[in-house]
């Protein structure tokens, strides 16, 4: 899906701002009064301040008035939402326009022409934040009878982050020609010696046109090539390199009867990604991931778009010597993806498939022997939602040079019967629908050890979340070291040709707490914990990277093991460094992006 930009044939106007707002039942036929307001975009939760409203589960109504300026009869107005979490129903003047399920991907709705004549239109969005075993992420919805007999919905997240909701990303109204560029797909093949790239640009239009003109421009806005039949071979291309990004632009024009119908410019990078012999190659060189699992999570905005925080995070990421992050546990904003492209930061792109584990508990006490048998794959009805998020993510992010791998799910019950049947078609779908055929991974949970896991042979990279020294052997780093070392060796022996990536490891840490001994939650323990992990990582030949859990502390639901959120960040929630940041900086600036572990 194309990002909304102004071009000679498209005009974008923002609908961000202060909207009318109401929680509870609503009637789109009747305008909301002005008693309560909400900012778009943001999570509604924290800014509402009131405790009940913050944790409200159900429908929230958003409304604004806007003017739809006149357009030519060959043009249309489109409403575009960057994301609405988790379910949106959109009305214009009380008339249903459409809906979208899924809280992390954009959607568009064409505004019918009859509204273009109106002085102003009333735009109403009903936002629902319920999650269940048919949605992604997975949540457990409950109803509680209150003292007065009324029913209040409650949501127990089946995952370890706060269920922030609202109109989370930009809302735009834009014009485009009726016969327009629907999509642009850019792929490139690099020669073995990197001296040539054959670039292919495929353009999808609504109807056939006389001419589709495609030109490529460099960063100085100089034309580099004009494509014939959508293809060109570029000599000595400047590559998109890790932390040294170079972005070309493809300008597409549709022409009919000598008239320019539509034009759009799509930035892209030339780089290759391959996996072979237990290594992960970018631009034909073995790459080492240094970085983070993150969250879209800031004070005040919650999960709402915060572009300043995005830039600060990526600058901090660079400052500490990292080169990558994973969009745990959902697709991040398009603005963040464009920023990563621009800054040369490598991204592992994840769908919101989290919570696919019956009765998931962040405490990882799922290994308890006395627990009832879990039957995740009988309980979960998420197949349709999963297919949808895969399709929407790849449609949205396929052209981003920063994206080097897709994640089909985070910590599913891949050791339970039914996991293989569930994941095989989804992994194939992900691989096959990507025009660049990037590697696909699944992030494995600690209990799905090599002897129990049923799916890791299906993916290209073995991604592991491992908490030796935290959830296992808590406070005993010597035992933790043995456990981690033994398990990584097992994976290496089982899949000698697959790279291993540690996608999560971490220890909750409260800044300022110190100890002479191995006492969890102290800054000294965090330092020792990571030192132990790194010692082990460096002995595993196929281990191609380390992504810390988490970049920054983040908000979670209230739980016994959460002290006002999850504190595994290397940075606090307001992005101040913990003591361990200095240690990371030393390690990561010493580890090169390439050839760290070349065999
Ligand atoms: C893993 C999850 C992540 C949690 C983390 C933790 O992937 O979402 O926040 O562990 O417990 O289970 O800190």
From TrEMBL:
PROSITE patterns associated with the record: GLYCOSYL_HYDROL_F2_1, GLYCOSYL_HYDROL_F2_2
Lineage top rank: taxon: Bacteria
Occurrences of domain Glycosyl hydrolases family 2 sugar binding (ranges): 13-177
Glycoside hydrolase family 2 immunoglobulin-like beta-sandwich domain span: 180-271
Protein keywords: Glycosidase, Hydrolase
Any GO BP: carbohydrate metabolic process
InterPro entries with a match to the protein in the record: Beta-gal/glucu_dom_sf (IPR036156), Galactose-bd-like_sf (IPR008979), GH (IPR017853), Glyco_hydro_2 (IPR006101), Glyco_hydro_2_AS (IPR023232), Glyco_hydro_2_cat (IPR006103), Glyco_hydro_2_CS (IPR023230), Glyco_hydro_2_N (IPR006104)
UniProt-listed Gene3D superfamilies: Galactose-binding domain-like, Glycosidases, Immunoglobulins
GO molecular function: beta-glucuronidase activity; carbohydrate binding
EC number assigned by the record: 3.2.1.31
Domain Glycoside hydrolase family 2 catalytic positions: 273-591
Enzymatic class: hydrolase
Hydrolase in keyword set: yes
Family: Belongs to the glycosyl hydrolase 2 family.
Protein name: Beta-glucuronidase
Originating organism: Streptococcus acidominimus
């Amino acid at each position: 899906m194309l990002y909304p930009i102004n071009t000679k044939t498209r005009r974008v106007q923002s609908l961000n701002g202060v909207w009318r707002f109401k929680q509870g039942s609503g009637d789109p036929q009747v305008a909301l009064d002005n008693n309560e307001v909400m900012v778009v975009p943001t999570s509604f939760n924290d800014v509402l301040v009131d405790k009940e409203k913050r944790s409200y589960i159900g429908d929230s109504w958003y409304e604004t008035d806007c003017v739809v300026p006149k357009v030519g009869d060959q043009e249309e107005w489109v409403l575009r939402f960057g994301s609405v979490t988790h379910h949106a129903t959109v009305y214009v003047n009380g008339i249903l326009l459409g809906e979208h399920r899924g809280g992390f991907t954009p959607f568009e709705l064409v505004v019918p022409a009859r509204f273009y004549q109106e002085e102003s239109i009333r735009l109403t969005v009903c936002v629902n934040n319920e999650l269940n075993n048919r949605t992604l992420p997975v949540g457990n919805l409950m109803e509680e009878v209150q003292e007065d007999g009324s029913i209040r919905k409650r949501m127990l997240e089946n995952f370890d982050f706060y269920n922030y909701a609202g109109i989370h990303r930009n809302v735009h109204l834009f014009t485009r020609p009726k016969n327009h560029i629907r999509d642009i797909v850019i792929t490139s093949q690099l020669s073995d010696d990197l001296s040539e790239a054959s670039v292919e640009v495929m353009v999808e239009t609504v109807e056939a046109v006389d001419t589709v003109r495609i030109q490529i421009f460099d960063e100085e806005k100089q034309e580099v090539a004009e494509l014939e039949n959508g293809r060109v071979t570029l000599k000595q291309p400047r590559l998109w390199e890790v932390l040294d990004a170079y972005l070309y632009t493809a300008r597409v024009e549709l022409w009919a009867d000598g008239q320019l119908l539509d034009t759009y410019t799509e930035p892209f990078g030339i780089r290759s990604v391959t996996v072979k012999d237990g290594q992960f190659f970018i631009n034909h060189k073995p790459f080492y991931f240094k970085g983070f699992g993150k969250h879209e999570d800031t004070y005040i905005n919650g999960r709402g778009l915060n572009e300043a925080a995005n830039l600060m995070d990526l600058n901090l990421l660079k400052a500490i010597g990292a080169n990558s992050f994973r969009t745990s546990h959902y697709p991040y904003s398009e603005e963040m993806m464009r920023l990563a492209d621009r800054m040369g930061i490598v991204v592992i792109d994840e769908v919101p498939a989290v919570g696919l584990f019956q009765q998931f508990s962040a405490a990882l006490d799922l290994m308890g022997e006395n627990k009832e048998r879990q039957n995740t794959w009988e309980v979960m009805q998420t197949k349709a939602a999963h297919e949808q998020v895969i399709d929407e993510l790849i449609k949205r992010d396929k052209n981003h040079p920063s994206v080097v791998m897709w994640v089909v799910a985070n910590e599913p019950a891949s050791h339970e019967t039914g996991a293989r049947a569930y994941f095989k078609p989804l992994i194939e779908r992900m691989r096959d629908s990507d025009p660049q055929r990037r590697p696909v991974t699944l992030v494995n949970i600690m209990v799905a050890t090599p002897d129990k896991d049923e799916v890791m042979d299906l993916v290209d990279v073995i991604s592991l979340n491992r908490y030796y020294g935290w959830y296992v052997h808590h406070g005993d780093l010597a035992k933790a070291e043995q456990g981690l070392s033994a398990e990584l060796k097992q994976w290496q022996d089982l899949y000698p040709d697959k790279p291993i990536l540690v996608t999560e490891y971490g220890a909750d840490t409260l800044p300022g707490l110190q100890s002479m001994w191995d006492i969890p939650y102290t800054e000294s323990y965090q330092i020792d914990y990571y030192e132990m992990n790194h010692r082990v990582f460096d002995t595993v030949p196929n281990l191609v990277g380390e992504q810390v859990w988490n970049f920054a502390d983040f908000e979670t639901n209230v739980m016994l093991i959460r002290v006002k959120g999850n504190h595994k960040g290397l940075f606090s929630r307001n992005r101040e460094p913990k003591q361990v940041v200095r240690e990371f900086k030393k390690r990561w600036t010493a580890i090169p992006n390439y050839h760290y572990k070349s065999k």
